[in-house]
Amino acid sequence: MFDGVEADGWTDGAAYDAGMGRWSRAVAETFLVWLNRRPGLTWLDIGCGTGALTGAVLDRTRPERVLAIDPSSAFLAHARARLADPRILFQAGEMEEIPAPDAAFDAVVSGLALNFLDRPRFAMPELRRVAKPGGVVAAYVWDYGGRMEPLRKFWEAAAELETDSFDFDETRRFADCDPEHLSDLFEGAGFDSVETKAIDLPLAFDDFEACWRAVATGCGPAPSYAATLDDSTRDALKRAYRQAICPHGGTVRATARAWAVRAVT
Question: What is the CA radius of gyration of the chain?
């Protein structure tokens, strides 16, 4: 099952969309261009969250239907309110036990969720099971330890404080979010024609305060960690993060990279 639905703060869909969620839609759209699926297909979005990828599938691929599942009831409620369309069914569920019959979907996708599984390799047979023969199975995750710069620099700043950030730190928890490990995960599950791709988003914030709000407030591992700190420690973290990502002030520019993987069943 997903690791830390409550601990990571996945309990407020609006807060997520106001922070990290602002980048989820852009990644989803580039991902779908890469998949290049024809209209009229059946889709499964696993770990749909607040519906960024689901909405992009609806707008860009004109699907016959979409089943979108997530373990967070709060995120599902937010997604339902935002995406009221008869072609979409939002349903509670886990990636290791997908509530769908065999060979039900032309496209099985997951955005920014695979790394939150306790044991991703145990979910792979389920992805194969629900995909039609010749269908596509694909996913993408943030490059936490590399060019997902706003998060990487945040955790580097947290490490400087020598506080207890280990349980939250995404660069340590999700060290396997790279093309080599993604390829191994899919190939190990017996998928054919496995390919990976870097998806880079240029980010610009008017000032450091806007960057801080996007990364350190709302919900998710970084805001959850910041919320555990007392005021003085949080202020020290903010100063260290400012120095790491915006040492000279002014506009903050960074790159948010995701790694995508796709395969054919």
Answer: 18
Residues in the chain: 265
DSSP-derived letter for residue 18 is: H
pLDDT in tens, 110-126: 999 999 998 899 999 99
Contacts of residue 149, defined as CB under 8 A and 6 or more positions apart, other chains included, come to: 203, 245, 254, 255, 256, 257
- Identify which of 25, 9, 1 has the alpha carbon closest to the alpha carbon of residue 199: 25
Which one, of 15, 58, 2, lies nearest residue 227 by Cα?
Answer: 15
Distances (CA, A) of 91 to 70, 75, 76, 189, 220: 7, 11, 7, 25, 21
Residue 58 φ then ψ, to 5°: -60, -45
Return the percentage of the chain with pLDDT > 90, whole number: 84
Q: What is the per-residue pLDDT across 157-182, written as a single tens digit (0 to 9) for each?
A: 999 987 788 889 999 999 999 999 99
Q: How far apart are CA 179 and CA 198, in angstroms?
A: 8
Domains and CATH numbers, the chain: 13-146+170-203+257-264 (3.40.50.150)
Q: Does position 1 have pLDDT exceeding 50, yes or no?
A: no
**pLDDT over 90 (residue 12):** no
β-pairing, 42-46 vs 252-264, is unpaired
Cβ–Cβ under 8 Å, residues 264 and 192 = yes
Q: In this structure, what token pair is assigned to residue 224?
A: 């959850």
For residue 67, give the 3-state DSSP assignment: strand
> Does the pTM of the predicted model rise above 0.70?
yes
